[in-house]
Amino acid sequence: MAVHLHPDRRAGPLCLDKWYADTLLPDGSVLLVYLGSLSVGSWCLSRVTADLLLPDGTRHSGGAKGRRPVLGDGSADFAAGGFNGERLWWQAAGLSGELTFTSRHPGFELACPFLEAGRRSLHWVVEVPDADVQGEVRWPGGSMAIEGRGYRDRVWADIPLWRLPLQELRWGRAVAGDHACVWVTATCPGGVVAAAWQDGHLIREGLVPPVTGPGRVLLEGPVIDLQGLHLGPLRAPLGRLLHAPSQVKQASEASIGGVSGRAVHEVVTWPR
Fold this sequence. Notes:
13-stranded antiparallel beta sheet, globular, seven-stranded antiparallel beta sheet, AttH-like fold, mainly beta, 61% strand, 20 strands
């Protein structure tokens, strides 16, 4: 598995470190996993969340409090979940699982850095752009074998989140047969940052998102209200402090090179 981890920079007092992974299943089911931490000095808020969204509207969700992640060579351990090489796992009330990601392509970075604000920066590394995934997820009273196409990325930032130079972010990824692509467009006060990748090659311009047909909404609302975060009384002050964005994440049909496939994509907007 291709893994691209940045060293632990300590340029700023606040640090966001977040991993996102998904798996698209042939029947239209989508599995989403988030592992993230927000730290200021010795204080760290860490969470692991997972959502399994089935085509009939059934949703199984889980979330757990983590610890400051312990990082290794191609690994991250949040106690309640993590990954090591090809293995991704999490244990949370409501939904737990263990998956194996066999990557089809090496990882890459979406610009370097993706965003800058003075001496601070945000790096977005697609560690696994396309992978064959196998494993199992479990919830109270049930379980499900997982076999599909997976993806994993990492976002690291020491830009204070209330100062992120972002107005809107459009991201997506699609798979179709042996094809795969990833795209992102960020609208900032100073202009637009765009990058894309398809079948092992970075594409600086000209990629049209291969989404076809209407989307099925997977997640919608303020990011801070993700079901598995369980922020409780921290929700309101963190929402104000972080200028929490809102997202709409969807699953859609896609077509790459004339081959039909599947896509997951989202629009994230920041209040200003």
